[in-house]
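Write out this protein's structure.
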Amino acid sequence: MKLGVQLYSVRDDMAQDFEGTLKKVKEMGYEGVEFAGLYGKSAEEVKALCAKYELEPVSAHVSLGEMRDDPFVIETYAAIGCKFIAIPWLNEEDRPGHENGDKLIGDAAILGAVAKKNGMKLCYHNHDFEFEKIDGKYVLDLLYEAVPADLLLAELDTCWVNVGGEDPVKYIRKYAGRVDIIHLKDFAGKKSENMYALIGVNDGKKEETVGDFEFRPVGQGLQDMPAILDAARESGTEWAIVEIDEPCKGKTAMQCIKESADYLKTVM
């Protein structure tokens, strides 16, 4: 199992100095990167920079809307060398049980087939809202039941699984063989009513404090990371990807991903 980082974690640094940030990520000990946008660079430029710094271009988060509008965006990430492409978020109307929920199933299958044709695998990256139930089953489970594993993998975000009320270790094992890639994310505090404000999403709720919930560098929060890593290894996970949605404790985003890498070197 290899260690990567979701570059959304350091998005401001990427916007200011794309190449310099990749260089620093490599120096921290990360072996691969997951993209969240290319900041105006071409696939050829990004592929060359990854090769220059010996970083594997593992995956990319691309919105469902963007892939729906232009499925050939998948080819861009295939040209970079990514093995995975992930749906990172669902607007409420696209979630199972809502207005376009049935359409999601069909679109995921179609996009999964396009990814497969390009030598890639489509993944779904969860938050906590997928742990709402429809007819006694979690939305997340309904999605994975409806779309075959060869068309849709589970990129389990271990923080959001926990916040959703389930055990990340249990869920990794539940989808053994389907969790080629997972997100390592740590946190402190508990679920609040306006949590998505922390990841830049206006969910329509009143402006209010988010309680004491806070993202943390990996190893500095409530997650049992050694148990999560053991479950991932035993379930066939290829990549463990650090993601920190927002820095904390007055630290910079770069400090947070470095502290995460330093910790993981001691337990991986």
